[in-house]
Protein 1
Amino acid sequence: MAESKRRLTIKVDALARVEGEGALVLRLRNGQVEDVRLTIYEPPRFFEALLRGRHYAEAPDITARICGICPVAYQMSACNALESLFHVEIPPELRLLRLLLYYAEWIQSHTLHVTLLHAPDFLGFDSVVQMAEAYPDLVQQALQLKKTGNRLLALIGGREIHPINVRVGGFYAVPRPSELLELRDPLRRALEHALELARWVAGFEFPDLELDYEFVALRHPDEYAILDGRIVSNRGIDIPVSRFDETFVESQVPYSTALRYEVDGRGSYLAGPLARFNLNFSQLSPLARETARETGISPPVRNPFKSIVVRSVEIVHALEQSLALIERYEPPARPFVDCTIRAGIGYGASEAPRGILYHRYEVSTDGTVLDARIVPPTAQNQKQIEEDLRHLAPLAIRLPKERATWLCEQAIRNYDPCISCATHFLHLEIEEMTGSTR
Amino acid sequence: MAGRRRKPKLAIWKFASCDGCQLTLLDCEDELLAIAGEFEIAYFLEASRAVVAGPYDLSLVEGSITTPEEVERIREIRRQSRVLVAMGACATAGGIQALRNFADVGGFKRVVYATPEYVRTLEHSLPASAYVSVNFELPGCPPSRSQVLDLLDAFLHGRRPRIPAHSVCIDCKRQGIVCVMVAEGIPCLGPVTRTGCGALCPRYRRGCYGCFGPMETPNTESLSAWFTHRSGLAPERLMPLYRSFNAAASAFQEASVRYATPDQAQQATETFWARAFAKGKDFDGREQAPADDQG
């Protein structure tokens, strides 16, 4: 086939402001997308292999090291999986603390992404440092908001990154009510800052892209799911977590070693803030729903760039819920419940800031992990990111090359991709030959 | 003179890691903008898409070296950097992914990847110092925020960083925390682990699990013997204690090899006590009383 001369290759050598490193090649020919290639050059760390032979009790701490940005998510999914295998019921007071810990992670992770990683794109800044010169108050407030999330995280978890206080069955130690109540005022101030942040980002200009997604998230009967729930979608999926493997399948393309996920027989899907918001909107806290209305978003949100607004709304939700939980907290009689080891396979999932995080462990009678499987949200969204880029390409090519490059980066950052957490893929090469080559 | 000093160029590099060490820097919410005021942030992809070409005055390296490309990259970064600091357990001791060093990496590949032959990786996950000279090592998984800030301040002022090398155990005593091992029989690596966390785990009634790697003169043999004697730890549990986030740090690696199998662990423990008794010391290291005084 003769090479067309009107060929434009947009190459982003290293993706900035994503956690982990990857690269993107988007090749267009005559205005048509010829090739979208998102390369992850995150070296493999073999977590699923190195968990084999370890004691089950180590799983929360070891898997936390998959991602420094959302370690609580890993700890919670690991605990869920093992506790469901051992038939352990977590009493309400301990569940409340876990919710608080997880909300704290959402607050710090979402604020990090909204303010430090994503907002600069919308305003044409390279970094938050540059943005701080133009918006000093907003950036300072956002940093304080992030700090408050981290304070709550450190109080319950022991520290912000790789908390030490989570164990299968509960915690090692629990806070006194007075320690939590000390955070009431900072959390209230943070809520004010979060509301301002939401209003601010809602005023950004959003590239025109609306896609018909299959949204997938957890759903809990009584709350905006975060800690546990059933897996649901807007196209009829409604399954317990134990049926994850048969519903979402690894797919491999012949020219790539990458493992990515799709709904069996259907294709790509989207996990994360947009999915949660669209599927579980009515369970958001009153103020979060009010903020959504005020900022002009209502389900279904199909523009991936608006995920920044949805994240901000989720920060409001996490803060409002945290304030309510702190008031209700009564220290449990014991910081954990005992586990009796049962051999078998346990399944667990929770809503990491970036979407569903699935863990599965097979454990022997003496508590040794025989097999582990971890499916992080970024691996699940991988195919969808490429789909987004394919749809965005016609828009991108009308722009000067530098601007087009930036827009593609921004589209990837919509997903807040935590590339270091995607244990499954290391070298993703996508060649979407769409048959449109003339 | 009114001329302003050129701001030193700071670069942050990532290798095989979780991003937590870089996040430690972004978690300095109160100091972040001040840091940006003192340094020219020349390469910090997690935070900025702007990239300034080298050479760099200070390079902070996160992550371990696990692929042939990474070997090349760390060498290039060394060439470009006046001062190179390895940050965190991965960059200073290979990280949790160094568990592959004790296994067959081919087997690891097959567990995770359907087509393992495409996976390019080295047999060992090693610290930066295995390939290049490193000016300073900042331990921890993750490193302590105050130590990261101290390091940056030390660089700016041309002094040595104040990073203590004593044990967690000492910090624990200083804070008056009840010893989890003595009081509750919980195995704790505090006596052999370097401080930096502020004795975090014992404060939460949990045994230290060694995030900051070995302290300056760790006596792992003695501690292990106490684990089996006083904490009633099964011999097969000794090895994994040392083989976690700092598995390739030499003192922990030696210890984990010493107790690699339950039999070896049992034997090493017995040998230790036999030696201790031969010197006339009892379990608590006191001179043994003459035999006729014993009840």
Protein 2
Amino acid sequence: MKLMTCPINGSRPISEFFYGGELRSMPDPNMVTDEVWADYVFHRNNAPGIKCEWWCHIPSNSWFIAERNTLTDEIIHTYLWGEVV
Amino acid sequence: MNQRRLPLISGEWIDRSQPIEFTFEGTRFTGYVGDTIASALWASGQQILGRSFKYHRPRGILSLANHDVNTLMQSGQKLNIRADVTPLEDGMTLSAINTFGGVMGDRASAIEFFSPFLPVGFYYKAFNSKRLFPFWERLIRNMTGLGQVDFSTPHIRTAKRYDFCDLLVIGAGISGLSAALSAADLGADVVIVDESARAGGSGHYQLGNDPLQLEKTNELLSAVENHPRIRLYTQTQAAGYYADRWIPLLDRDRFTKMRAKTVIAATGAYEQPAVFRNNDLPGVILSSAAQRLIYRYAVKPMNRAVVLVANADGYRAVIDLITNGVTVVAVVDLRESSLKSDVAQTLEQQGISIFLGYCVYEARANPGRDGVSAAVICPIDVNGNPQTGFRQTIACDGIVVSVGWAPAANLLYQAGTKMRFNKRLQQFVPEVLPSGVFACGRVNGVFEFEQKLIDGHRAGLEAAAHLGFDSQIEVTISPELESPSHPWAIVEHPAGKNFVDFDEDLQYKDFLNAAQEGFDNIELLKRYTTVGMGASQGKHSNMSALRILARITGKTPGEVGTTTSRPFFHPVPLSHLAGRGFTPEQRTPLHSRHVKLNAKFMLAGMWQRPEYYAQSGKSREECICLEAQAVRHQVGIIDVGTLGKFEIRGADAAEFLERVYAGRYSKMKIGTTRYALMLDETGVTIDDGMIARLGAEHFYFTTTTSGATAIYRELSRLNTLWRLDCGIVNLTGARSAINLAGQYSRDVLSKLTDLDLSSVAFSYLAVRETHIQNIPVMLMRVGFVGEWGYEIHVAADSAPALWDLLLEAGFEYDICPFGVEAQRLLRLEKGHLIIGQDTDGLTTPIEAGLEWAVKMDKSFFIGQRSLQILAKRPIKQILIGFMLDPNFQGTPPQECHLIIHGNEIAGRVTSVAFSPILNRHIGLAYVKPELAAIADLISIRLSDGTIVSATITPTPFYDPETSRQQEDVTQLQEVTV
Amino acid sequence: MIRRISPNHDRLQSLNGTWRDINGMPSLVSIPGDDRIVANLGIADLSFLTRFGVKGAGAVAWLESQKLEVPDRANTWKPLPDGGIIARLGLTEFLIEDSLHSSFALRLAEACQSVPAKVYPVLRQDAAIVLCGKAIQDLLRQTCSVNFQALSLAEHPVILTLMVGVSVTIIPILPDRYRIWCDGTFGAYLWETLLTIAQELGGGVVGVDRLI
């Protein structure tokens, strides 16, 4: 079973984690057209590559970011949101 | 009996002081502790051990290495017994599977005569007819199948466990033992596993009568067994390779989930059969199987042998046979020349003919068809084609085959190893290994004994270095002197029956036919022919199939490639996979109270909740009805402790709530509550609850039971992202909640608290913190079920005491505990929707009639922007209330029944129930807006097509003026509709 | 004193043990035969101990202002004077549990009536269990994927993980003494599951008098 390293709790099996989707920034709702907003809300980028993703360590409810290669499933780096990498 | 048992062999696995009695196919046999079923039967002269899958041909021992699928047996309730490796046990009553009338006289062997009509691809072509398939199915079920299930077999579960190590070595043969020692000596914590009953691998039986090899093997084994940092597990299979070096280890009793920091595959290689006519006769046996018979079980494989060789292993096997009393009449070498010329000379001097550049063309059966009577040999040309003009027949009662190996690289493939075909070795070897994974020994293309030791040593050093132990890796492996595998040990024959895959009864010509039909790619070839899909999963057949395809298509084996290797390596019993089965369950602190009150529980998510409280002599519907009536007429009490409960504090607490909920909360007065609707980014309703303001910077809010966990998680994420000055605490499990509802609820409560409960001091939807007999509680006046009532929140460990107090105080008012079903009915009478029941994954507040709970003029909330877009569009459906006729008889509609208008779907029912207080069926449904006028009729279609008419009614159905929440409610007013 | 009920109360009721009220909670203090079990593998319910939780960026400073010595690293614990435990759960959350002789929880709960900013009290209603005996590792190996034997107990680790599917906090106090906390609503399930396995391993329920 795949291992994921929680920045606070260390290396644990992936069953201890919850995937929270790709890290995306919300556009300013007041400044964008309906089309741009709909694209943000409904579309996701499925192209393989290195993505930053939200992950949560369930037992400790710790949210963090994982940089993961979605093609090879290699987890490159995990860090807390807001940390300078 | 036991006419083939040899005198004492040093290191034999059998214990001659412990004989075992057993039966096979009704006949009594004797063996010893340490025997496998196959070795004991062979020792007694029983050669037919099973019948093949398709043609029901007699089969005997092939590999003795857990690939002998044709000798699968059954003993009582135990199925899938692999006779070649399963230890013999007292009292076994074995039978062959897949026979009609027993293994000796299998009537189904008549199928063989139909074999020309059962070509490859037969299954796809013949059974495709829809009309005829039921007939075929019955026939096939009777004829095939690999055992008879006894449905009274007990369900066994074996506990799983976790385990950890620095290095897992898979395979305890020469190279594996060497690797384990090297790594352990440097400080690694090593686990080494082997599927056989004892470790040592081929070091104990591929001897060529060399005592030094045996000595060295035993030395290694002893060192491993005594090493403080090595754990040796025999009879343990490494069943697969999963991410990050997670390896399931299977032994007889349990399934261990091993997490290894590094892995060495020392898994060896599968000996490959040669393909010639009748190569499946009992008595045609792989050389390593013959050697195992001799050295492990002290069984003479045959009396007179013809040995087919193409490598050094073959000559070693010849010597082992001769040393142990087998007459070798001829050695047939597929190669024109071999390096073992000195050995060959010695053999010739002993009167053994050596035939270089020859093949075995055909094996002849004895009259009883249970063994070999002769081998027909002939020379082969440069392309491996038989020159039948020069054939000779040699009498023998066994043919030993040593023509090559295929690496047992399954776990390496699963780990993502890139393999490369080595032309010299004629096998695939690892080219690029994943980080932390290493290979040594025959799976790595190293066959010579001394070289295997060195290769294991090297792998151990590399693993230790990877683990951070200090190790100098300067090891050189000498290349093999001769190829261990022949590129083409396959002989065509006009009469066929030269088998490539013994599990599936596939002959050489089946592959030619498949390629001709266009299935000329390894993936297609596999699926069309079914090669490698039998119970041994291609261990003895995939390589041959690959070579055949390469020859047909003119490609190299490397270009043809292999199909995907998948777990499990050998079959895994379901009892081991099932484990204990952990199913978490949540109980409220009041659970024991519900049990005492005869609650019938239901599962709501992970929670056990009372559906209703059973009363003797009353049906479920009657109980629910009585509970609901009790709430309407006097007072009821329900455990709502499963609700999500959260506290948020901080300067930005109000701001946070304003962003995540659709309503306005920043101006709420302290001591009040408000309905809260939660949307997702697309504007869809996802949850609802109540928000209570307890202080300027202190709120308490509830969610639905099913939404609690996910909502807390997502709110935590948003709090992390937004970095507002607030903190959220999840009190769902820490607090219990009880609803006291009914016109006497205030009377009950006033006996227990000093708090002023008048409607002036404690108005509808207000919240108060107080004590009930020194238990701190929070009270909210709520209206979900439509009666004067209080939701009481309390610390979990005080809930049972509180419940008891409430029941005691309520006794004089006939207080009635009510469950989930009664509550659902009561809320429906008030027209209150339930998120997830009366809304779905696309419902917006507009459609659900919840616009009043949405404040679009806030600066930002989740879902706001999407609602702005949706507001510009026509709505497709709207939630309405309906009632059936007062005198309705017949089957009422159910949830999800459709509303039909002019032959089109115009909506669906979301909630429906019979209301005892209104004496009518009521419900909620979505309909197209143009059909939603009050008093209009709608047509609901039941499952059987009947149409039921209903009238659209305003909601709430019951007490539309909310007079039940006003002071001076003493008696139930006459309710007219 | 308010009568408190343990999440595991019903499970223990059916045993033939002796009870005593501790901190207002009926508690199983001894059970026939538990003196033999305790060295091998005993499981006892410690839900009666008083507890206090707090989290937030200001929690460290506030606890120090309450005269507590706070663990300086995430996921570590310190003993409290008079035998209790203060555990740092992750970066900014704390669990304080009293022994029978201390009352930090009560004092802190009172002090929490008016807390400074960024200090958030957490109501703790855990099901609290203690495992004791030499067969603890066998039980853990069947229920939890963390390698406890690789931990250095001298560093006072606190482990937040899943055990038989339930979120738990585990503190190895000693090699033969482990403390486990979980949400009280999962308490019955966790207790029952661990007890079944413990009994198979030759262990069972012990009364708290055996341990304290």
Protein 3
Amino acid sequence: MKTATEPNVNSELISSDLPAIKIKKRKKPRIGQYILTLILGLYTLFCLLPIILVFVIAFSDDESIASNGFSYFPQKLSLKGFQYVFNYGRQLFVSYGVTIFITVAGTALGLLIMSLFAYALSRKDFRLRKFLSIYLMIPMLFSGGQFASYMIFTTMYHMKDSIWLLILPLTVSTMNVIIMRTYIQTSVPNELIDSAHIDGAGEVRTFFQIVFPLMKPVLASVGFMMATAFWNDWQNALLYISSDNKVPLQLLLVRIQKNIEFLLNNKNISSSALVAMQGKIPEYSATMATVLVVIGPIMIAYPFFQKYFIKGLTVGSVKG
Amino acid sequence: MKDFLSNTWKHRVHFIMCIPAVLVLFFFSYMPMAGLVMAFKNFDYNLGIWKSPWVGFENFKFLLASGKTFWRMTFNTLEYYLIFTILGTIFNIALAIAIDQLIFKKIGKAFQSIMIVPVFISYAAVQFIVYAFCSNNGMVNNIISFFGGDPVRWYTSAEYWPYILTIVKMWNSIGYGSVLYMSVLAGIDQQLYEAAVIDGANKRQQILHVTLPSLIPMITIMLLLSVGGIMRSDTGLFYQVTRNSGILYSTTQVIDSYVLNAILTTPDYGFTAATTFYQSAVGLLLILIVNGIVRKAAPENSLF
């Protein structure tokens, strides 16, 4: 972001010996720079290796894992894991659909209602905004917690096993509204909004035709964060969802783990029952193949959104 | 007042724009807050939350009487909060400064992109990765046996889990956490560095006297925001990554994972409600106190 161009911009203003210092520094990167690169490289590797392991195990042969343990260098490669994943395909297919619906609907809805709210809060002459800002801030400082939420949602709203419970509670977050409001205040010129008004555009039209398109960078960064939150949400699903046709991918992962646990811990199951279940015991490579299928889409989408949130994510001033 | 009403009427479209978000917050944030009154009630499923009879502080007596569970989860929650916040802040800043100082900008960008990736993997998936490392025939034990050591049964040895969870948490969050600090570093006026160089400051002195002071407002805000969640934890880390294993509870059970377990089994309503009330109240109290202190010391950095 701050690159070589900056000193040049100022060079006319500052005494002439400054660029000389810069050039001298750039000529020979000191040994420290190489050490720094090495350290950062090692840390990057530390971040990356666990993810690579998922790939390797998904393509490993189960028997070699069972006999030699988990390893980056499996003795035998195999596609059996994936075969298994696609064998219990129907549930996976349904879960994929559920997760995609939650992610798309939740992110779109959330971005829409949060940006409307943020826009209204950014209007300086809107008196009610002081009260609404406080109303927005309080949930960040104090919350009912998961038990009170659970009781309210299930006993009062009777929303147990409703897919909307996976969507609505996550649509509005204080932090995201603040990020959006700050963005509108700093990056959408007031003159533009005023001139739209003078040209006779109503508030709604001004918002959708002028402000909303200009918010693209912040919508991309917040939207990607929200999408991953929806995609990765296992807790609400575990608490509220019971019917199979509403199980999202993350809950499927949790259930797979529970099944393994159950089979491993239950020594009382008769041997004949075990044989009968043999086909159903998810093995390591199959489990990792499932993990790969679950985290895959985010890994693929990430590079496209990456540039936005390295630039666009600033908490901004929290104070209104 | 009349002024205010006419202003609101003038901005009625803005007000309408707020309504959807206000309603979502009301039903999914504010109602649960009101639901905390359950801590003072003897919950009866047939009567519902509002009509159940009041019992005063009865539920809290049970909470304190539970002794070991209560203190254990409080202690663990606070312990992990402190470890994660202190280490996390230090590493976030160190990483941000390191990437910022790197001359090879392209390599730095590439490294940073990879470091952020772990935060996008849910704990439900991370749990399987940790298992591949820590199970009896996992990577770690393979390496230990390779060097002739005795394999460790990680999933039954509670004493190692504070370290394992810390490593997992840092792996998960540092790359992403440093992005915020990076954006502050990018905004530092280059002339400050140039002036420091003219004054004869070396790299270390530049970092100490220019870089770090400019990060302080961001550090304060991030710490303030985290204080409100002091009694809350990353539930996935403690519920999923430990596989919710009872043997490990002594070092891994936090309030949030306890409550989640309570809901999923048959909740003792009064006890659980008292626990969550205590959790929320302590968080609120602390953020008010700390914000008060910050407002005295450095008003521009306070939250409100």
Protein 4
Amino acid sequence: MSIVLEHVSYIYEAGTPLAQRALDDICLEIPNGQFVGLIGHTGSGKSTLVQHLNGLMKATEGHVYYNGEDIDAPGYDKKKLRSSVGLVFQYPEHQLFEIDVFSDVCFGPKNLGLPKEEVERRAREALNLVGLSEEYDKQSPFELSGGQKRRAAIAGVLAMGPKVLILDEPTAGLDPRGREEILQQIKRLQVQTGMTILLVSHSMEDVAEYVDRILVMNHGRVMLDGAPREVFRHYKELEEVGLAAPQVTYIMHALHEKGFDVDADATTIEEAAGEIMKALGRSETLRN
Amino acid sequence: MLRDITLGQYYQTDSVIHRLDPRVKLGGTLLFIISLFFFQNMWGYVIAAAFLALVIHLSTVPFRYIVKGMRAILFLLLITVAFNLFLTPGTPLVSFFGGHVRITYEGIRLAVFIALRLCFLIIGSSMMTLTTTPNNLTDGMEKMLRPLKLFKVPVHEVAMMMSIALRFIPILLEETDKIMKAQIARGADFESGKLVQRAKAMVPLLVPLFISAFRRANDLALAMEARCYRGGEGRAKMKPLIYQKRDGIAYLCLGLYLVAGIGIGRL
């Protein structure tokens, strides 16, 4: 049960002078239940890559396998694939269209041809998962706040019952609080359901705290792949391609260079604080 | 999926034709199209072809790119040719099905002329859009239609609306593509089913598209107001349209073509 990419390349406008290689020979495996952060600059190919995973785009070269089956093979049931691999696009609230929140969330499972009770059960469950209680059910999706709209749209994909959830920049355009809320919701979701989650972002700060693994893309290639602390060790290379490691990384590396006995690999603020206190010879934490 | 439309799009490059005043190109295209309807013999078409070839050569737009845009009207072209070929009365050359369907000498002549006329018409007008940015085009139109202001026609406003509409075409195409993909990811099916089902399947596409169009229009209006836009009254142009020497030469060439084409084409 996993997603495997084998030498996948994608060329926009192939065969014309405008041809552009958006993905270049990507080999990748995402095992079940992993929380992966996909990081890259605008135009690095991350959005193109995720659209290959549920068959919206077809690789120019190479193969994509879901649970061992080639998704571009003739006769492969793409509709079923799209219900197992849910894709939440950037600004998903722009796809809302129904008269009320509940009917909009029902759209996905209804398309799967499920009976009415099952559709409604799934919609309710999905709305619970994103923290929208029943009082919102009968409201027009266009009356919700920005963060609520986005959560309703994410519920619309969750109601399909995906095993893998891909989110393309789910925090774009939200204020810091909305951003935090969405990310924590996603983490909770992963813990509760054991779903595989692929979170696309251009901000390391956003993902560092939550993910098990980070993939860094640059010019259509996977540049770095590993646990957050391994990836952040390459913070100088990251800077060269216009990305940055979390601020904590910089502080810890600077302290390390100045001769403090701290673990420069600390990725979260809590870890870093603990390390600094340890180096200063105090055991209590900085809290309060 | 929707990006294959090249007919009527601007081709970015620098050439004499690109630099011409849009009024020359607008007027020229109009006169060229009218001239096509005056020809009564082969020579008129030969002269028109030579004139078009010269313009295409000077514009440095690859011929293949122009032809690619023609695919959109291929079907129309075929139907027109077929009707003229089979339905024109006259001296029969070949006949099928016991004389019910026949091709006449006049039919062939007419079909060839009509096909040429249609092709020239499309190529001629796409030469204008290929070499003129939409903004330039509306600027030219605004200036040419200025006399209508005497009759209280809001020329500037109409031109502004046109340029905004043109600008929004690629944006809305991209938006359609995006929303379509998002709904397909939610299991929507735009390709199969009966007519009624297909029409119903468009709702999840059209509602978000309309909302997004309104949102963008609203944003644009706000941005224009923030820059103190208040219509054409007293508004100066950053790049005013002023005739250059090359525009004079272009008008001269156009005049020569018209005299030669219509003079010889009607003999």
